[in-house]
Amino acid sequence: MTLTFIILIACLLASTGAKWSYNGPDGEHNWSSNYPFCGGAFQSPIDFQTHLLRYDSNLPPIQVQNYNLSTNEQLTLSNNGHSVQLSLPSHMYISSLPYKYSAAQLHFHWGSSNQLTGSEHTVNGKQFAGEMHVVHFNSDKYPNISMAVDKHDGLAVLGVFIAIGEFNPAFEKFFKYLNGIKYRDQKIQVPAFNIHALLPSHLDEYYRYDGSLTTPPCYPSVLWTVFRRPVTISQKQFLALATALYASYAQESATVPLHGNYRKPQLADNRVVLVSFKDGLHGILSAASPFQRKQVIQKLLVGDLADLADEGLYQLLPKLSPQSGNDKKLKKTKKQEHWSQATQKQQWLKNKVPSNSGYSLSVGKNTPTPWNMGTFDTGKEMCFVSLEENVMHQLERYHAKGLMVETLKEVVFPELNLRSYLHCRSDLDLQTIRKLIQGRSRDEATELEQSLAEAMLKKMRRQINQHKYPKMEATIGHPQATVPKDFNSALTYNRPQRVEWED
Ligand SMILES: *[C@@H]1O[C@H](CO)[C@@H](O)[C@H](O)[C@H]1NC(C)=O
Ligand SMILES: *[C@@H]1O[C@H](CO)[C@@H](O)[C@H](O)[C@H]1NC(C)=O
Ligand SMILES: *[C@@H]1O[C@H](CO)[C@@H](O)[C@H](O)[C@H]1NC(C)=O
Ligand SMILES: [Zn+2]
């Protein structure tokens, strides 16, 4: 009997990937040993610190469809050893995102009976009692959630903070069955109900950012929407959740309680968090509008920056490499920077349209590398950090030359925005870059400001004398250009093994 059980567990592990937990040797500090993405970039959850927030007036209220399920429908309530999960039918979906995201399941993260805090996301360090995740997959692009889970645009999760307060009748619809799934891998069928009643009242107020699954394999595939307002459950309801379940199998003699199942906040990695609300946030910056971003993207996609090659400006474009070098290498190549300009230019001209894969950007690589690597490298993938190095490098190289600022403005800044938006999945804007440079030395910061002003003047003069500069006209043109539909779709993550995932 015991042997059969051990074999069963062994087979289970072999087919679903290595085991992991929230505590002990398989705890989150060690998830990346078996699940490399957990140690990579753009992980979730994060702490929503005020300085990361950018107000975006273009974020519409979240709209969900078919959330009011008929009681004739049955849902599967299960204990997967990491959480309690309720299956959801795929006719439920989010209709207010660029793609249709169909529901798959919802589950919870919570504290314990002696530590009442257990949300994953936090607000300026404040942790709530718990958090609900309603997981959806991009059903416009992928046939099912297994195919979507590792794609950069595969998942959309609605996060709901849970605070202790008033009794919540909607949560009771399935809380009352928890005793039927006390042990790991137990499942029961429960009648469906109105899932909308689990969401908070203000679906128009939320945090939005690009992140990951908060459990192994931690794929950075999630478009996060975390509602600002919590829902409440009573202390009694919370304690029922926190004490009813075990992370261990019914057959195991040593029982392991299932609680405190939250991951700690991850690095922001220079991401910003878009917010749909402005009130209560003093002096919050606004994000670049989608229109501005689109303009930048179009400008780059039509490839007219090639014209700038004649002026030698192509050298300023960040070069692409399979892995950005470590700091030592970077310094070395900075000194020894001596690549063939002809090769560079040729390479660049050949690839006027930015390629669509998730490579990193770096400077000072003297070997031309393929532009389209096709994989997302989790190494030193801090795109923004590489870009920052690039900007600083250019500042050094073209110090005190008007050309430097002009090209920063014309080439590097749009490039920064484009790359970080499309590949690094963050929303940088000029403000961010200014702030970054301000953090350096006074001289550089003031010079940048002065030079930006000068460049602005120059641009105005140029517009007046436009007929003398046909090249610039070409750059400004091409209103018909559009972003190819699958421009950003080739990015997939390495997926070495079939693995279980929940979130
Ligand atoms: C981390 O996990 C690996 C592989 O599962 C294991 O060999 C190692 O002992 C763990 N390390 C720690 C510090 O627990
Ligand atoms: C949900 O649907 C039921 C019928 O299936 C209906 O009685 C109820 O009023 C609906 N609830 C909401 C909030 O629309
Ligand atoms: C998901 O879709 C793929 C491709 O159509 C298919 O091979 C796979 O079996 C499906 N997986 C599940 C769990 O339905
Ligand atoms: Zn989760």
Automatic annotation (TrEMBL):
<dbReference type="GO" id="GO:0008270">
    <property type="term" value="F:zinc ion binding"/>
</dbReference>
<dbReference type="InterPro" id="IPR036398">
    <property type="entry name" value="CA_dom_sf"/>
</dbReference>
<protein>
    <recommendedName>
        <fullName>Carbonic anhydrase</fullName>
        <ecNumber>4.2.1.1</ecNumber>
    </recommendedName>
</protein>
<dbReference type="InterPro" id="IPR001148">
    <property type="entry name" value="CA_dom"/>
</dbReference>
<dbReference type="GO" id="GO:0005886">
    <property type="term" value="C:plasma membrane"/>
</dbReference>
<comment type="function">
    <text>Reversible hydration of carbon dioxide.</text>
</comment>
<feature type="domain" description="Alpha-carbonic anhydrase">
    <location>
        <begin position="18"/>
        <end position="277"/>
    </location>
</feature>
<feature type="signal peptide">
    <location>
        <begin position="1"/>
        <end position="18"/>
    </location>
</feature>
<keyword id="KW-0479">Metal-binding</keyword>
<keyword id="KW-0732">Signal</keyword>
<dbReference type="InterPro" id="IPR023561">
    <property type="entry name" value="Carbonic_anhydrase_a-class"/>
</dbReference>
<dbReference type="GO" id="GO:0004089">
    <property type="term" value="F:carbonate dehydratase activity"/>
</dbReference>
<comment type="similarity">
    <text>Belongs to the alpha-carbonic anhydrase family.</text>
</comment>
<dbReference type="Pfam" id="PF00194">
    <property type="entry name" value="Carb_anhydrase"/>
</dbReference>
<keyword id="KW-0456">Lyase</keyword>
<keyword id="KW-0325">Glycoprotein</keyword>
<feature type="region of interest" description="Disordered">
    <location>
        <begin position="324"/>
        <end position="347"/>
    </location>
</feature>
<keyword id="KW-0862">Zinc</keyword>
<dbReference type="InterPro" id="IPR018338">
    <property type="entry name" value="Carbonic_anhydrase_a-class_CS"/>
</dbReference>
